[in-house]
Specification:
Organism: Saccharothrix hoggarensis
Strand order of the largest sheet: 3-2-1-4-5-6-7-8
Order of helices and strands: HEHEHEEHEEEHHHHE
GO biological process, one term: methylation
Largest sheet: 8 strands, mixed
Structural class: alpha/beta
Number of helices: 8
Protein name: Class I SAM-dependent methyltransferase
Keywords: Methyltransferase, Transferase
GO molecular function: methyltransferase activity
Shape: globular
Strand content: 15-25%
Number of strands: 8
Length: about 270
């Protein structure tokens, strides 16, 4: 039976369960790149606070997030949160407060009120109902107008899926990949976030999307001699032509991305 998220003992009163903690350098580069592009305006204010929740046994992806967001705004402050005290101690060794710091915390965000929260690979161990509750808890701790980006990726960041949420609920859904790593776009199903992964069955919207994208990939086969990236771009173009509400453009598609309205995959 899955454990119910609870407040851990101690002054931190951190909410949640420890993750496996596995991480690798550059694992989250794709979502970082998307965040820096999509939420540039949100990050452009005076000393905006960004929280990285559940960074794992190494703080490397939090350090990388801070470096990437400083290219948008050198005054960005990044706070890494972990439940495990040893992981927090490892973060403190590379901290550079106030621009980069680490603290013990969970879904309650240790009292922080960020404009942007990245929570990657932290909800797979929960039930779908518990993950929905975690969404509500995290969004409730954001600064006004803030955004939660929650998702999942493989161990080296070649296959990723994520959802962006605000106080109004889920807004967008993104698939991101290294096209050369795929047999078909449907391979990304293994990295769907908890809110969607159990709905990838006939009759559900996310299954319809992945099936349509697979069909577009097959139709785009003549582009294969130009490389997997060219085939991906053509497949996404076909998807948009078939009436799917694709929100980005060819520049993003060339990065192995496609972002759509959440409504087209909502269970």
């Amino acid at each position: 039976m899955a454990r119910t998220p609870r407040l851990a003992a101690g002054r931190a009163r951190a909410l949640g369960l420890p993750t496996r903690g596995t991480t690798n350098p550059n694992r989250l580069r794709r979502v970082d790149r998307w965040v820096a592009h999509t939420y540039r305006d949100l990050l452009s204010g005076p000393e905006p606070l960004v929280v990285d929740l559940g960074y794992g046994s190494s703080p490397v992806t939090t350090v990388e997030l801070a470096a990437r967001l400083r290219a948008v705004n050198p005054d960005v402050r990044v706070l890494g949160l972990e439940l495990d005290a040893d992981r927090v101690a490892a973060g403190k060794e590379v901290a550079d407060p106030p621009r980069l710091d680490f603290r013990r915390g969970g879904f309650e965000l240790a009292g922080a009120r960020p404009v942007l929260l990245r929570a990657f690979n932290v909800l797979r161990q929960y039930t779908e109902e518990q993950a929905a509750e975690a969404w509500d808890t995290m969004v409730g701790r954001l600064a006004p107008g803030g955004v939660l980006v929650e998702g999942t990726c493989d161990e080296i960041g070649r296959r990723c899926c994520w959802v962006a949420l605000t106080a109004e609920g889920p807004r967008t859904f993104t698939l991101s990949c290294l096209p050369a790593d795929l047999e078909t776009p449907g391979d990304l199903a293994e990295r769907l976030p908890k809110a969607l992964i159990h709905h990838n069955v006939p009759g559900e919207r996310v299954h319809a999307l992945l099936s349509e994208l697979d069909a577009c990939w097959a139709t785009a086969a003549p582009f294969a001699p130009y490389g997997p990236r060219a085939r991906w771009v053509e497949a996404v173009r076909l998807l948009a032509d078939r009436g799917w509400p694709v929100l980005d453009d060819r520049r993003r598609w060339r990065l192995g991305e496609v972002t759509l309205h959440w409504d087209v995959v909502s269970p």
